[in-house]
């Protein structure tokens, strides 16, 4: 093994056995053996965001699509994701004029925002004709606000990182809106927080399931979820990413995986899942980088 000095945050040593040319949780030796998963038919709305076709879409429509994607957002989420404004009041006016519903939420400045009108979804489809019809869940989304707001930050951090090229991002709301025949076996009983495709340098795509664990579920429930993932043909080489809010949560998930293997309900440890603590994720993919040495394979 060789040592390289890279612009990476301190405290990431525990991720040291990864090729430094790719993000910590994405770059095992399997990457080039994976065959270059092709982007499934029907994906492309996120790619259009980066292409010529999207130049004619008004910014307020892009904001509306982002809100539909994420379910619940804040003004700061929109500012961070689009990087188009310096004044939050301007964003607030844009969202009000777009018809997005605003609701007070604790001491959060400008509250939270979500779509509560089906007509807004139809307006989106004028610009994005292939977009599925998002379910307008309105206030029912409020039960998961803390989780949703943190997930917004994680998505922005990952998509803005210079360590990875995200070609497509399917949010939970997007997946739920897909017709059953396009969900590829995903059901209402188990929808990931997101699915994303990482674009490799050779132009191929690599698929990942993304989960954010803010709090612990029961071991039995994790057992069912882990077994669900393990049975999928597109789950291999640790491409199910669990970002855990704390080391305690990470350690519990590791133990659940180990217990399932001991009980013969999973084939082995380290085959399907990659558990990373939120603080390490932030350090690895945040904008502020510091020098650190990492081992590469």
Describe the structure.
This protein has 297 residues and is α/β, with parallel strands linked by helices. It has one domain (42-290). It has helices spanning 45-49, 59-70, 75-82, 88-97, 118-127, 145-160, 172-177, 219-230, 247-262, 278-285, and strands at 2-7, 101-103, 112-114, 166-171, 194-199, 205-213, 240-244, 273-277, 291-296. The strands form 3 sheets. Strands 4-5-6-7-8 form a 5-stranded mixed β-sheet. Strands 1-9 form a two-stranded antiparallel sheet. Strands 2-3 form a two-stranded antiparallel ribbon. The termini are close together.
Would you spell out the secondary-structure blueprint of this structure?
Elements: E1 2-7, H1 45-49, H2 59-70, H3 75-82, H4 88-97, E2 101-103, E3 112-114, H5 118-127, H6 145-160, E4 166-171, H7 172-177, E5 194-199, E6 205-213, H8 219-230, E7 240-244, H9 247-262, E8 273-277, H10 278-285, E9 291-296
Looking at this protein, list some descriptive labels.
35% helix; two-stranded antiparallel sheet; 297 residues; alpha/beta; 5-stranded mixed sheet; globular
